[in-house]
Amino acid sequence: MTMKTKDYLRDTFRIAVPSIIEHIANVVVGFADTMMVATLGTVATAAVGINATVTWFLMAFATLFAVGTTVQVAQSIGANNHKRAKRAAINGLSGGFILFTIIFILIFFLSPHIPKWLGAESEILQDAVSYLRIWTIAIIPMFLGRTASSILRGIGNTKMPMVVAFFINILNIIGNFFLIYNTRVVTIPIIGTEFTIWGANLGVTGAAIATSLSNALGGIIMLYLLFNGSQIIRLNLKDLFKFEKILLKHIFKTGAPATGQDLITETGQVLYQKMVASLGTIQVAAHHLATTAESLSYMPATGFSVAATTLIGQALGAGKKKDAENFGRICFILSIFAGLFSGIMLYVFPKQLMYLFSKDLAVINEGVGALRIIAFVQPLFNATIVLTGVLRGAGDTKIPLYAALGGMWFVRLISAYIFINVLNWGLKGAWLGMLLDLSIRFIIVFYRYIKKDWLNAKIIVDD
What we know:
Structural class: mainly alpha
Number of helices: 17
Main location: membrane
Largest sheet: 2 strands, antiparallel
Pfam families: MatE
Order of helices and strands: HHHHHHHEEHHHHHHHHHH
Protein name: Probable multidrug resistance protein NorM
Family: Belongs to the multi antimicrobial extrusion (MATE) (TC 2.A.66.1) family.
Radius of gyration: 22 Å
InterPro entries: MATE_fam, MATE_MdtK, MdtK-like
Strand order of the largest sheet: 1-2
Protein backbone atom coordinates (compact mmCIF):
# COMPACT_ATOMS: atom_id res chain seq x y z
CA MET A 1 0.00 0.00 0.00
CA THR A 2 1.47 3.32 -1.07
CA MET A 3 1.55 6.38 1.14
CA LYS A 4 -0.27 9.56 0.19
CA THR A 5 1.07 13.09 0.55
CA LYS A 6 -0.93 13.63 3.74
CA ASP A 7 0.68 10.49 5.20
CA TYR A 8 4.16 11.80 4.43
CA LEU A 9 3.27 15.16 5.95
CA ARG A 10 1.81 13.49 9.05
CA ASP A 11 4.92 11.41 9.65
CA THR A 12 7.20 14.35 8.92
CA PHE A 13 5.45 16.62 11.41
CA ARG A 14 5.20 13.80 13.97
CA ILE A 15 9.00 13.67 14.10
CA ALA A 16 9.73 17.31 13.29
CA VAL A 17 7.38 19.19 15.62
CA PRO A 18 8.89 17.91 18.91
CA SER A 19 12.36 18.64 17.51
CA ILE A 20 11.29 22.15 16.52
CA ILE A 21 9.81 22.74 19.98
CA GLU A 22 13.01 21.42 21.54
CA HIS A 23 15.07 23.81 19.44
CA ILE A 24 12.73 26.68 20.32
CA ALA A 25 13.26 25.86 23.99
CA ASN A 26 17.03 25.86 23.47
CA VAL A 27 16.89 29.16 21.59
CA VAL A 28 14.62 30.81 24.16
CA VAL A 29 17.00 29.80 26.92
CA GLY A 30 19.90 31.01 24.79
CA PHE A 31 18.05 34.32 24.52
CA ALA A 32 17.37 34.45 28.27
CA ASP A 33 20.96 33.45 29.04
CA THR A 34 22.30 36.13 26.72
CA MET A 35 19.94 38.81 28.06
CA MET A 36 20.86 38.01 31.66
CA VAL A 37 24.58 38.20 30.92
CA ALA A 38 24.06 41.32 28.79
CA THR A 39 22.68 43.17 31.83
CA LEU A 40 26.20 42.90 33.26
CA GLY A 41 27.53 45.00 30.37
CA THR A 42 29.36 44.73 27.06
CA VAL A 43 32.52 43.28 28.62
CA ALA A 44 30.62 40.34 30.14
CA THR A 45 28.76 39.74 26.88
CA ALA A 46 32.02 39.68 24.93
CA ALA A 47 33.60 37.30 27.49
CA VAL A 48 30.84 34.76 26.92
CA GLY A 49 30.65 35.46 23.19
CA ILE A 50 34.31 34.79 22.48
CA ASN A 51 33.88 31.29 23.94
CA ALA A 52 30.92 30.49 21.69
CA THR A 53 33.24 29.37 18.90
CA VAL A 54 35.12 27.05 21.27
CA THR A 55 31.98 25.43 22.64
CA TRP A 56 30.60 24.80 19.15
CA PHE A 57 33.98 23.45 18.06
CA LEU A 58 33.93 20.93 20.90
CA MET A 59 30.33 20.00 20.12
CA ALA A 60 31.61 18.75 16.76
CA PHE A 61 33.19 15.77 18.51
CA ALA A 62 29.80 14.79 19.92
CA THR A 63 28.56 14.71 16.32
CA LEU A 64 30.80 11.72 15.54
CA PHE A 65 28.78 9.31 17.65
CA ALA A 66 25.49 11.24 17.55
CA VAL A 67 25.17 11.17 13.75
CA GLY A 68 26.90 7.84 13.17
CA THR A 69 24.78 6.06 15.76
CA THR A 70 21.53 7.74 14.68
CA VAL A 71 21.89 6.52 11.11
CA GLN A 72 22.70 2.95 12.16
CA VAL A 73 19.82 2.86 14.63
CA ALA A 74 17.30 4.37 12.19
CA GLN A 75 18.23 2.03 9.34
CA SER A 76 18.17 -0.99 11.66
CA ILE A 77 14.74 -0.02 13.02
CA GLY A 78 13.49 0.38 9.45
CA ALA A 79 14.70 -3.15 8.69
CA ASN A 80 12.97 -4.37 11.88
CA ASN A 81 16.33 -5.50 13.29
CA HIS A 82 16.00 -4.20 16.85
CA LYS A 83 18.90 -6.26 18.17
CA ARG A 84 21.30 -4.56 15.77
CA ALA A 85 19.86 -1.16 16.68
CA LYS A 86 20.54 -1.92 20.36
CA ARG A 87 24.11 -3.02 19.63
CA ALA A 88 24.72 0.10 17.56
CA ALA A 89 23.49 2.27 20.43
CA ILE A 90 25.77 0.49 22.93
CA ASN A 91 28.80 0.88 20.66
CA GLY A 92 28.05 4.56 20.09
CA LEU A 93 27.76 5.34 23.79
CA SER A 94 30.81 3.29 24.76
CA GLY A 95 33.03 4.83 22.10
CA GLY A 96 31.69 8.26 22.96
CA PHE A 97 32.56 7.90 26.64
CA ILE A 98 36.22 7.23 25.84
CA LEU A 99 36.51 10.11 23.35
CA PHE A 100 34.64 12.60 25.52
CA THR A 101 36.80 11.80 28.56
CA ILE A 102 39.95 12.58 26.56
CA ILE A 103 38.45 15.87 25.33
CA PHE A 104 37.45 16.87 28.86
CA ILE A 105 40.97 16.35 30.21
CA LEU A 106 42.59 18.31 27.36
CA ILE A 107 40.24 21.29 27.40
CA PHE A 108 40.08 21.58 31.18
CA PHE A 109 43.83 22.12 31.38
CA LEU A 110 44.02 24.28 28.23
CA SER A 111 41.09 26.53 29.19
CA PRO A 112 43.29 29.25 30.79
CA HIS A 113 45.01 29.78 27.42
CA ILE A 114 42.27 29.31 24.79
CA PRO A 115 40.50 32.71 25.09
CA LYS A 116 43.85 34.48 24.72
CA TRP A 117 44.59 32.43 21.57
CA LEU A 118 41.24 33.63 20.21
CA GLY A 119 42.31 37.23 20.62
CA ALA A 120 40.42 38.11 23.82
CA GLU A 121 41.33 41.58 25.04
CA SER A 122 42.67 41.94 28.59
CA GLU A 123 39.43 43.44 29.91
CA ILE A 124 37.43 40.26 29.15
CA LEU A 125 40.14 37.62 29.64
CA GLN A 126 39.46 36.69 33.27
CA ASP A 127 35.71 36.20 32.76
CA ALA A 128 36.30 34.33 29.49
CA VAL A 129 38.67 31.84 31.14
CA SER A 130 36.32 31.30 34.08
CA TYR A 131 33.34 30.65 31.80
CA LEU A 132 35.17 28.14 29.60
CA ARG A 133 36.68 26.12 32.45
CA ILE A 134 33.35 25.75 34.25
CA TRP A 135 31.50 24.89 31.02
CA THR A 136 34.09 22.19 30.31
CA ILE A 137 33.28 20.31 33.54
CA ALA A 138 29.98 19.08 32.04
CA ILE A 139 31.45 17.80 28.77
CA ILE A 140 31.20 14.04 29.45
CA PRO A 141 27.54 13.81 30.58
CA MET A 142 26.48 16.56 28.15
CA PHE A 143 28.03 14.90 25.08
CA LEU A 144 26.80 11.44 26.09
CA GLY A 145 23.36 12.99 26.49
CA ARG A 146 23.54 14.30 22.92
CA THR A 147 24.37 10.79 21.71
CA ALA A 148 21.49 9.36 23.76
CA SER A 149 19.11 11.97 22.31
CA SER A 150 20.22 11.03 18.80
CA ILE A 151 19.59 7.35 19.51
CA LEU A 152 16.04 8.17 20.61
CA ARG A 153 15.54 10.23 17.45
CA GLY A 154 16.79 7.32 15.35
CA ILE A 155 14.09 5.19 16.94
CA GLY A 156 11.57 7.90 16.07
CA ASN A 157 11.10 9.22 19.61
CA THR A 158 11.64 12.98 19.50
CA LYS A 159 9.25 13.74 22.36
CA MET A 160 11.56 12.67 25.18
CA PRO A 161 14.48 14.87 24.05
CA MET A 162 11.97 17.73 23.82
CA VAL A 163 10.69 17.21 27.38
CA VAL A 164 14.22 16.94 28.79
CA ALA A 165 15.27 20.08 26.90
CA PHE A 166 12.40 22.00 28.48
CA PHE A 167 13.37 20.81 31.94
CA ILE A 168 17.06 21.65 31.74
CA ASN A 169 16.37 25.00 30.08
CA ILE A 170 14.06 26.05 32.90
CA LEU A 171 16.71 24.88 35.36
CA ASN A 172 19.31 26.98 33.53
CA ILE A 173 17.20 30.13 33.77
CA ILE A 174 16.51 29.55 37.48
CA GLY A 175 20.21 28.99 38.07
CA ASN A 176 21.06 32.22 36.25
CA PHE A 177 18.48 34.10 38.32
CA PHE A 178 20.12 33.15 41.60
CA LEU A 179 23.78 32.84 40.60
CA ILE A 180 24.41 35.83 38.30
CA TYR A 181 22.92 38.64 40.38
CA ASN A 182 23.41 39.98 43.89
CA THR A 183 20.82 39.67 46.68
CA ARG A 184 18.11 42.24 45.95
CA VAL A 185 14.77 43.53 47.16
CA VAL A 186 11.85 43.06 44.76
CA THR A 187 8.50 44.83 45.01
CA ILE A 188 5.25 43.36 43.68
CA PRO A 189 3.66 46.38 41.89
CA ILE A 190 -0.03 45.74 42.57
CA ILE A 191 0.08 44.98 46.30
CA GLY A 192 3.31 46.80 47.08
CA THR A 193 4.79 43.89 49.02
CA GLU A 194 8.57 43.75 49.21
CA PHE A 195 10.63 40.60 49.58
CA THR A 196 14.30 39.75 49.37
CA ILE A 197 15.68 37.39 46.72
CA TRP A 198 19.01 35.79 47.52
CA GLY A 199 21.72 36.09 44.90
CA ALA A 200 25.30 34.79 44.70
CA ASN A 201 26.49 37.79 42.63
CA LEU A 202 28.85 35.62 40.58
CA GLY A 203 28.26 37.37 37.25
CA VAL A 204 29.70 35.51 34.25
CA THR A 205 30.92 32.71 36.53
CA GLY A 206 27.35 32.24 37.80
CA ALA A 207 26.05 31.95 34.24
CA ALA A 208 28.70 29.31 33.52
CA ILE A 209 27.77 27.29 36.63
CA ALA A 210 24.06 27.34 35.74
CA THR A 211 24.76 26.27 32.16
CA SER A 212 27.18 23.53 33.18
CA LEU A 213 24.91 22.05 35.86
CA SER A 214 21.83 22.03 33.63
CA ASN A 215 23.74 20.47 30.72
CA ALA A 216 25.19 17.76 32.94
CA LEU A 217 21.82 16.93 34.49
CA GLY A 218 20.17 16.84 31.07
CA GLY A 219 22.73 14.34 29.82
CA ILE A 220 22.26 12.12 32.88
CA ILE A 221 18.47 12.13 32.40
CA MET A 222 18.78 11.17 28.72
CA LEU A 223 21.06 8.25 29.63
CA TYR A 224 18.64 7.14 32.35
CA LEU A 225 15.79 7.06 29.81
CA LEU A 226 17.80 4.81 27.51
CA PHE A 227 18.86 2.38 30.21
CA ASN A 228 15.73 2.39 32.38
CA GLY A 229 12.89 3.72 30.22
CA SER A 230 10.36 1.84 28.11
CA GLN A 231 12.12 2.27 24.78
CA ILE A 232 12.06 -0.10 21.81
CA ILE A 233 15.73 -0.88 22.39
CA ARG A 234 16.16 -0.54 26.16
CA LEU A 235 19.86 -0.81 26.95
CA ASN A 236 21.71 -2.63 29.74
CA LEU A 237 24.71 -1.24 31.63
CA LYS A 238 26.43 -4.64 31.54
CA ASP A 239 26.64 -4.39 27.75
CA LEU A 240 28.74 -1.20 27.81
CA PHE A 241 32.22 -1.41 26.30
CA LYS A 242 31.38 -4.61 24.41
CA PHE A 243 32.80 -3.21 21.20
CA GLU A 244 32.04 -4.70 17.79
CA LYS A 245 34.54 -3.84 15.10
CA ILE A 246 32.06 -3.96 12.21
CA LEU A 247 29.47 -1.77 13.92
CA LEU A 248 32.06 0.76 15.01
CA LYS A 249 33.31 0.87 11.43
CA HIS A 250 29.82 1.73 10.17
CA ILE A 251 29.35 4.35 12.89
CA PHE A 252 32.69 5.98 12.05
CA LYS A 253 32.05 5.78 8.31
CA THR A 254 28.93 7.90 8.70
CA GLY A 255 29.87 9.94 11.75
CA ALA A 256 33.45 10.89 10.86
CA PRO A 257 32.54 13.03 7.82
CA ALA A 258 29.78 14.70 9.87
CA THR A 259 32.34 15.47 12.57
CA GLY A 260 34.77 16.63 9.91
CA GLN A 261 32.08 18.95 8.58
CA ASP A 262 31.58 20.50 12.00
CA LEU A 263 35.31 20.66 12.74
CA ILE A 264 36.02 22.36 9.43
CA THR A 265 33.26 24.85 10.13
CA GLU A 266 34.24 25.51 13.73
CA THR A 267 37.99 25.65 13.06
CA GLY A 268 37.16 28.23 10.44
CA GLN A 269 34.94 29.95 12.99
CA VAL A 270 37.95 30.30 15.28
CA LEU A 271 39.81 32.26 12.60
CA TYR A 272 36.62 34.10 11.69
CA GLN A 273 36.12 35.02 15.35
CA LYS A 274 39.68 36.36 15.50
CA MET A 275 38.92 38.62 12.54
CA VAL A 276 35.82 39.91 14.33
CA ALA A 277 37.78 40.29 17.60
CA SER A 278 40.26 42.53 15.80
CA LEU A 279 37.41 45.00 15.25
CA GLY A 280 36.97 45.60 19.00
CA THR A 281 34.82 44.68 21.99
CA ILE A 282 31.66 46.36 20.65
CA GLN A 283 31.86 44.35 17.43
CA VAL A 284 32.50 41.10 19.34
CA ALA A 285 29.43 41.75 21.49
CA ALA A 286 27.29 42.71 18.47
CA HIS A 287 28.47 39.64 16.55
CA HIS A 288 27.61 37.36 19.47
CA LEU A 289 24.18 38.93 19.99
CA ALA A 290 23.33 38.94 16.28
CA THR A 291 24.34 35.28 16.03
CA THR A 292 22.05 34.50 18.96
CA ALA A 293 19.19 36.40 17.30
CA GLU A 294 19.81 34.65 13.99
CA SER A 295 19.42 31.27 15.69
CA LEU A 296 15.68 31.94 15.53
CA SER A 297 15.83 31.65 11.77
CA TYR A 298 16.64 27.97 11.48
CA MET A 299 14.44 26.51 14.23
CA PRO A 300 12.02 24.83 11.79
CA ALA A 301 14.84 23.63 9.54
CA THR A 302 16.51 21.86 12.46
CA GLY A 303 13.31 19.94 13.16
CA PHE A 304 12.75 19.01 9.52
CA SER A 305 16.38 17.91 9.27
CA VAL A 306 15.92 15.52 12.21
CA ALA A 307 12.73 14.21 10.61
CA ALA A 308 14.50 13.72 7.28
CA THR A 309 17.38 11.77 8.82
CA THR A 310 15.08 9.51 10.85
CA LEU A 311 12.39 8.87 8.23
CA ILE A 312 14.77 8.46 5.29
CA GLY A 313 17.04 6.20 7.33
CA GLN A 314 14.09 4.01 8.32
CA ALA A 315 12.64 4.01 4.78
CA LEU A 316 15.94 2.99 3.17
CA GLY A 317 16.50 0.39 5.89
CA ALA A 318 13.12 -1.08 4.92
CA GLY A 319 14.03 -0.93 1.21
CA LYS A 320 11.39 1.73 0.43
CA LYS A 321 13.24 4.12 -1.86
CA LYS A 322 10.11 5.90 -3.08
CA ASP A 323 9.13 6.76 0.48
CA ALA A 324 12.65 8.05 1.15
CA GLU A 325 12.50 10.26 -1.95
CA ASN A 326 9.09 11.68 -1.00
CA PHE A 327 10.14 12.40 2.58
CA GLY A 328 13.20 14.23 1.25
CA ARG A 329 11.17 16.33 -1.16
CA ILE A 330 8.57 17.33 1.44
CA CYS A 331 11.20 18.31 4.02
CA PHE A 332 13.05 20.35 1.39
CA ILE A 333 9.94 22.29 0.32
CA LEU A 334 8.98 23.00 3.93
CA SER A 335 12.49 24.31 4.63
CA ILE A 336 12.29 26.83 1.78
CA PHE A 337 9.02 28.29 3.08
CA ALA A 338 10.41 28.42 6.62
CA GLY A 339 13.53 30.19 5.35
CA LEU A 340 11.52 32.79 3.44
CA PHE A 341 9.52 33.62 6.55
CA SER A 342 12.55 33.85 8.84
CA GLY A 343 14.45 35.95 6.30
CA ILE A 344 11.62 38.49 6.19
CA MET A 345 11.54 38.63 10.00
CA LEU A 346 15.29 39.22 10.25
CA TYR A 347 15.19 41.99 7.65
CA VAL A 348 12.12 43.80 8.99
CA PHE A 349 12.71 43.49 12.74
CA PRO A 350 16.51 43.41 13.34
CA LYS A 351 16.51 46.38 15.71
CA GLN A 352 13.81 44.85 17.89
CA LEU A 353 15.73 41.57 18.08
CA MET A 354 18.98 43.28 19.05
CA TYR A 355 17.17 45.43 21.60
CA LEU A 356 16.14 42.26 23.44
CA PHE A 357 19.77 41.71 24.41
CA SER A 358 21.40 45.11 24.65
CA LYS A 359 20.53 48.76 25.20
CA ASP A 360 23.96 49.86 23.92
CA LEU A 361 23.16 51.77 20.71
CA ALA A 362 26.57 51.09 19.20
CA VAL A 363 26.12 47.34 19.69
CA ILE A 364 22.54 47.46 18.38
CA ASN A 365 23.48 49.36 15.22
CA GLU A 366 26.31 46.95 14.40
CA GLY A 367 24.00 43.97 14.91
CA VAL A 368 21.18 45.42 12.79
CA GLY A 369 23.43 45.67 9.76
CA ALA A 370 24.64 42.10 10.22
CA LEU A 371 21.12 40.65 10.54
CA ARG A 372 19.83 42.45 7.46
CA ILE A 373 22.68 41.03 5.41
CA ILE A 374 22.14 37.44 6.52
CA ALA A 375 18.35 37.70 6.01
CA PHE A 376 18.83 37.32 2.25
CA VAL A 377 20.36 33.85 2.49
CA GLN A 378 17.90 32.32 4.96
CA PRO A 379 15.93 30.21 2.42
CA LEU A 380 19.17 28.67 1.15
CA PHE A 381 20.59 28.21 4.66
CA ASN A 382 17.43 26.49 5.91
CA ALA A 383 17.37 24.24 2.84
CA THR A 384 21.03 23.30 3.36
CA ILE A 385 20.33 22.22 6.94
CA VAL A 386 17.45 19.99 5.79
CA LEU A 387 19.24 18.54 2.77
CA THR A 388 22.16 17.65 5.04
CA GLY A 389 19.66 15.70 7.13
CA VAL A 390 18.34 14.01 3.99
CA LEU A 391 21.81 12.87 2.96
CA ARG A 392 22.67 11.77 6.50
CA GLY A 393 19.63 9.51 6.58
CA ALA A 394 21.13 7.67 3.62
CA GLY A 395 24.56 7.60 5.27
CA ASP A 396 25.88 10.09 2.69
CA THR A 397 27.80 12.51 4.92
CA LYS A 398 30.80 13.30 2.72
CA ILE A 399 29.17 15.87 0.43
CA PRO A 400 28.12 18.18 3.31
CA LEU A 401 31.74 17.88 4.49
CA TYR A 402 33.03 19.07 1.11
CA ALA A 403 30.44 21.86 1.10
CA ALA A 404 31.62 23.05 4.51
CA LEU A 405 35.25 22.93 3.40
CA GLY A 406 34.59 24.96 0.26
CA GLY A 407 32.21 27.41 1.87
CA MET A 408 34.16 28.15 5.04
CA TRP A 409 37.79 27.95 3.99
CA PHE A 410 37.69 29.01 0.35
CA VAL A 411 34.85 31.53 0.52
CA ARG A 412 34.04 32.89 3.99
CA LEU A 413 37.54 33.32 5.40
CA ILE A 414 39.05 34.74 2.23
CA SER A 415 36.16 37.10 1.47
CA ALA A 416 35.80 38.20 5.11
CA TYR A 417 39.52 38.98 5.29
CA ILE A 418 39.25 41.14 2.17
CA PHE A 419 36.06 42.86 3.32
CA ILE A 420 37.42 43.57 6.82
CA ASN A 421 41.11 44.30 6.26
CA VAL A 422 41.26 45.60 2.68
CA LEU A 423 37.88 47.28 2.14
CA ASN A 424 37.39 48.22 5.82
CA TRP A 425 33.73 47.19 5.87
CA GLY A 426 33.87 46.16 9.54
CA LEU A 427 31.34 43.71 10.96
CA LYS A 428 29.15 43.99 7.86
CA GLY A 429 32.08 42.68 5.83
CA ALA A 430 32.38 39.67 8.13
CA TRP A 431 28.70 38.85 7.67
CA LEU A 432 28.88 39.33 3.91
CA GLY A 433 31.54 36.63 3.94
CA MET A 434 29.12 34.42 5.86
CA LEU A 435 26.40 35.05 3.27
CA LEU A 436 28.69 33.94 0.44
CA ASP A 437 29.75 30.84 2.41
CA LEU A 438 26.17 29.69 3.04
CA SER A 439 25.24 30.25 -0.61
CA ILE A 440 28.07 28.03 -1.84
CA ARG A 441 27.17 25.30 0.65
CA PHE A 442 23.61 25.23 -0.65
CA ILE A 443 24.71 24.90 -4.28
CA ILE A 444 26.95 21.91 -3.50
CA VAL A 445 24.46 20.05 -1.28
CA PHE A 446 21.49 20.77 -3.56
CA TYR A 447 23.35 19.38 -6.57
CA ARG A 448 23.97 16.13 -4.69
CA TYR A 449 20.33 15.97 -3.65
CA ILE A 450 18.87 16.38 -7.14
CA LYS A 451 21.24 13.75 -8.59
CA LYS A 452 19.50 11.21 -6.28
CA ASP A 453 22.60 9.05 -5.84
CA TRP A 454 21.81 8.96 -2.12
CA LEU A 455 18.75 6.82 -2.84
CA ASN A 456 21.07 4.03 -3.96
CA ALA A 457 23.30 4.11 -0.88
CA LYS A 458 24.44 0.72 0.37
CA ILE A 459 22.44 -0.08 3.50
CA ILE A 460 23.84 -2.74 5.86
CA VAL A 461 21.41 -3.83 8.57
CA ASP A 462 22.17 -7.51 9.13
CA ASP A 463 25.79 -7.74 10.36
